[in-house]
Amino acid sequence: MSHDIHPRIPRLPALIGALALIGALGLVTACGGSPQRGPASRGITPGAGQSLPGRPGGTGPASPIPVLPNTATAAPARSAPATPVGPNSVTIKNFAFHPAALTVKAGTTVTWTNQDPEPHTVTSQGQGPLRSAALASGARYPYKFTTPGTYKYLCSIHPFMTATVTVTQ
Q1: Where on the phi/psi map is residue 86: left (φ > 0), alpha (ψ -120 to 50), or beta?
Q2: Considering the entire predicted model, what is its pTM?
Q3: What is the pLDDT tens value at each position of the chain, 169 positions in all?
Q4: Are 93 and 118 spatial neighbours (Cβ–Cβ below 8 Å)?
Q5: 14 burial level (CB within 10 Å; 0-12, 13-18, 19+)
C-alpha cells in the first residue's frame, strides 16, 4: 500500500523527517522568540583565517539563496499587452495574440512573432490554411492571405489563446 496522499505531495514520513532535521539544525526560530540557534551558538566556530559569511561578525557577503531553474514561487507578472512589431503583424505575448482581431486586404502577408518564453502555434480553427510549427521564443510565422473571409485561429498548445484575421477585398 502506498503512503502517498497525492502524487504532487511528498510522502508524510519524508516530510516529517525533513521538518525534524530543520528543527535540529536550528534553522527555524519562533517569531520574536528565543535567540537564533545557528552554527556559532552550537560551538561551531571558524578556523584560523576563516569566517562565517552572512553572520554578525562574519566577513564576506551572505550566501545567496539558491534558486532552481524552471521553478516558480509565484504567478508570473503580467506586463502590458505587447505592441505588434509592424502594421500587419501579430505579437504573441503573455499567452495571448495581440491584436486579437486584425483586418487586412487580400494579398497581405501577416507575420506572427512569439515574444513568450514558451512555444506557441498559429493554427486555424477547424478547416483553414494556418498551420505553423511550434514557434520558439523570437520565432516568426508569415502567411499571405489571398482570399477574403474571416480566419479564426488558436494556439494548438494552449487552445484558450484565440484570435481572428478578417480579410477584405
Answers
A1: beta
A2: 0.53
A3: 444 455 555 454 554 555 454 454 554 444 444 444 444 444 555 566 655 455 455 454 544 444 445 433 334 444 445 555 678 999 999 999 999 999 999 999 999 999 999 999 999 999 999 999 999 999 999 999 999 999 999 999 999 999 999 999 9
A4: no
A5: exposed
Residue found by looking up cell 491584436 in the block: 99
Backbone angles phi, psi at 153, to 5 degrees: -145, 170
